[in-house]
Amino acid sequence: MAAVITMYGPMDRAVPADPGLAMLDVVRAYAHDCLHYGSARRYVLVDGQVMRTQYGINWRRPDGRSYSAADPHDAPHTRNLGVVMEGACDREARRITRYIASRFGVAGPDSPSDPGWWAYRDVTGRLGAAVDPGDIDGRTSGEADAYIAALCRYEQGVNQRYERWLAEFGGGEPEDLHDLVVAAIVSGDAIRLCRWLDDRHGPGAFSAMFQAGGYLAPQQTPRSRETRPGSGQPAV
After folding, report:
1. How confident is the model over 10-22, as pLDDT tens digits?
2. DSSP character string of the chain
3. What is the pTM of this model?
């Protein structure tokens, strides 16, 4: 929490390149990382080594099996708790950033030819499906184009997948569902979230959405006995 990075260069200059966008960039990044930093965690000892078995609303068996499986690379939706948690934290961070932008009257550039046009829509949650990252990748000629392509890939791979999940299971109440997800991530208690989903989609809705096949199968060799390559330290 001691350092914050922004794409707009050093902040110790008398006048940053774009003070408004730099401020929004920092606010979004700080809010996003605070939510991750404050997410609930649970640790256990496995064969004398520390193993993290819970992070937010995602769990992991002592042998390393994650509660939910990775999404297919080209999936437009998500059934992965990592994507849901990342999307929820970023959605909340962008909501905070929109408030700051409105409160201080910060608006982005008018032209899509300016990278700041894309950056402003990204930090305030208005990027949407503005462009296909593949199109940008085909014409990338410099740092600015590469940056825009990265924004769009993140938007499609995380934020849009999370928005589709909220629309699929929110029952017309996506904001209520989002608030429950954020509260569960921070507290580590998914009971209210699970009850809300059960009321609308039937008993066991959360596990039906997210639990990977074989997650509860007999435990394999504990991952805690493995080591990080070249480190000699346990992989936790």
Report:
1. 667 677 678 899 8
2. ------TT--S-SSS-SSHHHHHHHHHHHHHHHHHHHTS-EEEEEETTEEEEEEETTEEB-TTS-BSSPPPPTT-SS---HHHHHHHHHHHHHHHHHHHHHHHTT----S-TTSHHHHHHHHHTT--TTSS-HHHHHHH--SHHHHHHHHHHHHIIIIIHHHHHHHHHHSTT-HHHHHHHHHHHHHH---HHHHHHHHHHH-TTHHHHHHPPTTTTSSP-S-GGG-B-TTT-SB--
3. 0.85
